[in-house]
């Protein structure tokens, strides 16, 4: 079975921890940025986060999507997976960029900070949604026994497909969705 490298797994899971930290330590009120130490920390964190996102992207960009699959992956499935991954990276770049924009505008007292905050909040919300989709799809794949879970996850290994009427129904529905996407996009 194909699997991600140890470095890829390390980057994936350590970055997940960094992302969670960023979410939980976020600034609650703009006035908190009046503290120069906090403002400098936020700038440093945003720059480090952005650098790590780019390192992760360039390390993973040529990696096969849905690596480890023990089934044939439909083109519609690949399209959805690649689209979600691309959008996740987009939000993970937008979060620190808009954070830096907020810090810059705040530091010089310029207008437009409300727009920057709106973009930052939208990026955060979109990242929550997309990461939830990613995690949900990972669990679903694990239940289906596709092998993808084992390629990236160092724990709770999947052994075989979980047979159930619900999984069978979902697979049939999923197949119809992929067929529709493939026809519409001529994949």
**Shape, principal axes of CA atoms:** elongated
Major sheet, described briefly? none
* Average residue pLDDT: 90
Work out the helicity level: over 70%
Q: Outline the low-pLDDT stretches.
A: none
Question: What structural class should be given to the helix and strand makeup?
Answer: mainly alpha
Commentary on this structure:
The chain is mainly α and 187 residues long. It has one domain (6-185). The protein is built from 6 helices and no strands. Helix 1 packs antiparallel against helix 2 (36-60) and helix 3 (75-108) crosses helix 6 (165-185). The radius of gyration is 20 Å and the shape is elongated. 13% of the residues are buried.
List its salient traits:
elongated; mainly alpha
Short description:
With 187 residues, this protein is mainly α. Helices cover 73% and strands 0% of the residues. It has six helices and no strands.
SSE blueprint and pairings:
Layout: H1 6-24, H2 36-60, H3 75-108, H4 113-144, H5 148-152, H6 165-185
Helix pairs in contact: 1-2, 2-3, 3-4, 3-6
């Amino acid at each position: 079975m194909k699997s991600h490298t140890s470095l890829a797994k390390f980057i994936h899971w350590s970055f997940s921890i960094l992302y969670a930290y960023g979410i939980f330590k976020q600034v609650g009120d703009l006035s908190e940025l009046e503290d120069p130490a906090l403002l400098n920390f936020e700038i440093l964190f945003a720059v480090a986060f952005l650098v790590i996102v780019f390192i992760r992207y360039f390390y993973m960009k040529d990696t096969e999507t849905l690596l480890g699959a023990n089934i044939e992956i439909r083109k519609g499935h690949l399209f959805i997976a690649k689209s979600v991954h691309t959008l996740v990276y987009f939000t993970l770049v937008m979060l620190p960029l808009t954070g830096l924009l907020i810090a810059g505008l705040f530091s010089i007292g310029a207008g437009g900070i409300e727009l920057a905050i709106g973009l930052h909040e939208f990026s955060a919300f979109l990242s929550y949604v997309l990461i939830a989709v990613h995690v949900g799809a990972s669990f679903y794949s694990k239940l289906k026994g596709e092998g993808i879970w084992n390629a990236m996850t160092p724990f709770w290994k999947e052994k075989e497909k979980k047979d159930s009427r619900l999984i069978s129904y979902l697979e049939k529905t999923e197949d119809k969705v992929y067929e529709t996407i493939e026809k519409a996009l001529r994949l």
